[in-house]
Specification:
The chain is α/β, with parallel strands linked by helices. It has 3 domains: 87 residues, NAD(P)-binding Rossmann-like Domain (Rossmann fold, 3-Layer(aba) Sandwich), CATH 3.40.50; 199 residues, Mur-like, catalytic domain (UDP-N-acetylmuramoyl-L-alanine:D-glutamate ligase); 133 residues, Protein-Tyrosine Phosphatase, Chain A. It has 14 helices and 21 strands. The strands form 3 sheets. It has a 10-stranded mixed β-sheet with strand order 8-7-9-6-10-11-12-13-14-15. A hairpin with a 3-residue loop joins strand 7 and strand 8. Helix 10 runs parallel beside helix 12. It is globular, with a radius of gyration of 21 Å.
């Protein structure tokens, strides 16, 4: 089969292209962004060509899929339509792959990438190999493998195309309100997804919205609260990471340690351990694997330049920002935390203005770029800008590539660049100052 992926540098589309290639398909792609992105690494390793104009030919039997960041009237989408090529939705192609393996589908408003990455790491360290599709531009597929770890996104209800053997639901919160009517709409969509699961669901029982779901498939609840099937106890948060005891059905399962920070990371690890326990993965090997886990790309990715700690993080929702700042403070209690946040959509800025103000105010100093949206038009959101947030934060300022020198007084502190859109250009400019 031949596939053509429009928006191939997007994290999800890059990953799809990689596993389609691993399945033995002929894969190529298009993107508007000519600058290097971290999602290109796996594409380049597989020699997948990337085009930046519409001058290349495409065979008539090519199947086209595209990123939702590209509008229907984009010139490249118009071109493939005029060529009469078959266009198939991104999530439908993934749904076909799900059915080929014992798929572990990791869903939730937050924590999908990290939880998927922990499961992937444990399986690789214990059984040797596994297939995975992780939204940090990371994918791998071998037809001979049994398990497929899939980060499953609720955006545009994508995950409803999946019927996995196992599912995880990390949490349910208000998000993507440009797609969903309200929290009830979000929860009922997760419920439909959950009940498409064939064998087992592992879900965070501390989350009130998850507890409202009418599960038809067997479910195990995990969390800190005593009414869960899998309970986290005796957690210790230190500058070197987290440690905790895990109880299953009121019996001590074991003590675990990991180089990750914050309550949310302990919850992610508990979900991964619960699935691996169900798969009968050796407990001691799980423990050792967790100790060596390194987080996925753009999940608190850290670089030290002299005395400056530079962090690149995908956080773009108020809850994610809050727990990320808490985790950084845990690791660096003696440094100031400076956040540079790049808002990605007008709708999220509008829907969560107060929550962004509250979360970002936890930092010692806050900078925001102007909103850069690849799927929304500013004229559709009059009056919505980064100023709505930054003007209400005591130590808040607007920043850009041209004014990156504003960070110079904080070069001996922790500078955390946040946003779901790439911030590499900002980091690059800041490093020039250093």
């Amino acid at each position: 089969m031949k596939y053509y992926c429009i928006g191939i540098k997007g994290s999800g589309m890059s990953t799809l292209a990689q596993i389609l290639k691993d399945l033995g398909n002929d894969v190529s792609g298009y993107d508007d962004a000519k600058d290097y992105k971290f999602t290109q690494k796996g594409l380049e390793e597989r020699n997948i060509p990337i085009y930046y104009d519409g001058n290349h030919t495409l065979d008539k039997d090519t199947i086209v899929t595209y990123s939702v960041a590209f509008s229907k009237d984009h010139k490249e989408l118009k071109r493939v339509e005029q060529l009469g090529l078959t266009i198939k939705k991104y999530n439908e192609i993934i749904g076909d792959i799900v059915d080929l393996f014992d798929t572990i589908s990791v869903s939730g408003t937050h924590g999908k990438t990290t939880t998927s990455s922990i499961i992937k790491h444990i399986l690789e360290e214990t059984i040797g190999d596994c297939n995975y599709f992780i939204g940090a531009g990371d994918g791998h597929l071998n037809k001979d493998n049994k398990y497929f770890v899939l980060e499953s996104d609720e955006f545009n209800r994508h995950f409803l195309a999946y019927h996995p053997k196992y599912s995880i639901i990390t949490n349910i919160e208000a998000e993507h309100l440009e797609i969903y009517k309200d929290i009830d709409d979000i929860r009922t969509t997760f419920e439909k997804f959950a009940n498409q699961t064939k064998e087992l669901i592992v879900a965070c029982g501390d989350n009130k919205e998850i507890r409202k779901i009418n599960f038809k498939t067997k479910v195990l609840f995990y969390g800190f609260n005593d009414d869960n099937d899998i309970i986290i106890k005796n957690q210790q948060l230190t500058s070197t990471g987290n440690s905790f005891d895990l109880y299953i059905n009121n019996q001590l399962y074991d003590h675990f340690e990991m180089p990750l920070y914050g309550n949310h990371m302990t919850l992610n690890a508990a979900a991964a351990i619960a699935i691996c326990n169900h798969l009968k993965i050796d407990k001691e090997k799980q423990k050792q694997a967790l100790k060596t886990f390194k987080n996925a790309a753009r999940r608190c990715s850290e670089e030290k330049v002299g005395d400056t700690i530079i962090i690149d993080d995908y956080a773009h929702h108020p809850t994610e920002i809050k727990v990320t700042i808490k985790g950084i403070k845990q690791k660096y209690p003696n440094k100031k935390i400076v956040v540079v946040f790049k808002p990605n959509t007008y709708s999220r800025t509008k829907d969560f203005t107060k929550q962004f103000i509250e979360s970002l105010s936890m930092a010692d100093k806050v900078f925001l770029t102007e909103i850069e949206s690849n799927r929304e038009k500013p004229e559709d959101y009059p009056g919505i800008s980064s100023s709505l947030i930054v003007d209400e934060i005591k130590n808040g300022e607007i920043i850009s590539e041209e004014t990156i020198q504003k960070l110079e007084p904080y070069k001996n502190e922790v500078i955390c660049f946040m946003g779901c859109a790439p911030v590499a250009h900002l980091i690059s400019e800041f490093k020039k100052i250093l």
